[in-house]
Amino acid sequence: MKQLRNDGIISRWVGPAALARLALAGLLLALGVVSVVWATQEPSQFDQWAAYFGLSGNDAREAADPDADGRSNAAEYSAGLDPTSWDTDGDLLGDGEETNNALSRVMLRLGDPLFSMADGQFVYPFPQWCLGARTVAGESITNAPLNGQSTNAWHVAAAAGTGAVEVAIDRSLITTQDLMCAVAFFDHASSQLILQLADANGTTLADDLFGNFAGGSDALRSVALPVPLSGYPQAAIIRLQMVAGEGTVYTIQVYRDSDADGLDDEGEQEAGSDPNRQDTDNDTISDFEEVVRYKTNPAAADSDGDGISDAAELRVGMDPRRDDRQEDLDGDGVNNGTEYLMGRSVGVAGAESDTSAQVRLTLFLPLE
User: Fold this and answer.
1) Contact present, 162 and 192 (Cβ < 8 Å)
2) Which residues is 140 bridged to in the sheet?
């Protein structure tokens, strides 16, 4: 368990309003730049934890699973997860899917009225290597535009000048490894967003790593940027800086992804794939696609061991997770395995009338 630190950056980031709100909520947190660690489980503390996340009635029982992620409230409490989110860390893998690494990313759902506090602190479950997060200037809003609806966001008005979102990293745990920073934002025509690195005192070390990554498209946009911590041994703060114009940011994720395939290193470890290779089994399907989209084995080109590769099964419409060669997907009287060997579509009824053109179309259309 992390211990409460007492250095300059801690006292600068943790204000009285944050401590008062946490006390009223009854949460027993250890704060290291708002680092979140849930206390040893006791019934009264569990009740306070459940109330903080807004659980009540049957949803507040220890055995309940209100977010339907396969983990009970008791298990989520023990692991320091969010019982109202099926994917606490935003890696597109459900908390229940991840046995050992359910909290592998910093996930900032900016503007959330429960976790974004009045003094800029952001209180949410973080991995051990994150010391906390905060906003500097700007405001949390609940009416940010997103696909014709309104949602939570951090917002800086055009006339306000500048603002920033900062994530503090424990460099004793993240030594030479680079990180990824993924930002989802509304791409205002006037937005100017840059990524900076600062030391533990807030002094800027790298003023502008990639230039303005806003494009002015007036639409939702997401970018994933490599954070070169290995080149800046003193860097302890990753800073998203609003330089000018209007800014609306929905989420920020910070995570370890050595091969930049979208599946973070902890997810690769969980799945048994190589964090330094985008396609561990060389089956033309990336590790991210296998683990997140198809739920296949990224370390085996033939997940179900039926002699047909995952890629081939996906192309013809078979299920790469189980041996379905003896099934007849299109109901034409010829089983899937036979049709596959004959070069015919397994998903178009009437094997005798399948034309070569139809087969080519089925087999080689690009995947969505």
Assistant:
1) no
2) 154
Domain assignments of the chain as residue spans, ordered by start: 8-255, 265-364
Task: Reply yes or no on domain 8-255 having CATH 2.60.120.1320.
Answer: yes
Per residue in 170-217, pLDDT tens? 999 998 889 999 999 999 998 999 999 999 999 999 999 999 999 999
- Residue percentage of the chain with pLDDT more than 90: 65
69-86 pLDDT, tens per residue?
999 999 999 999 999 999
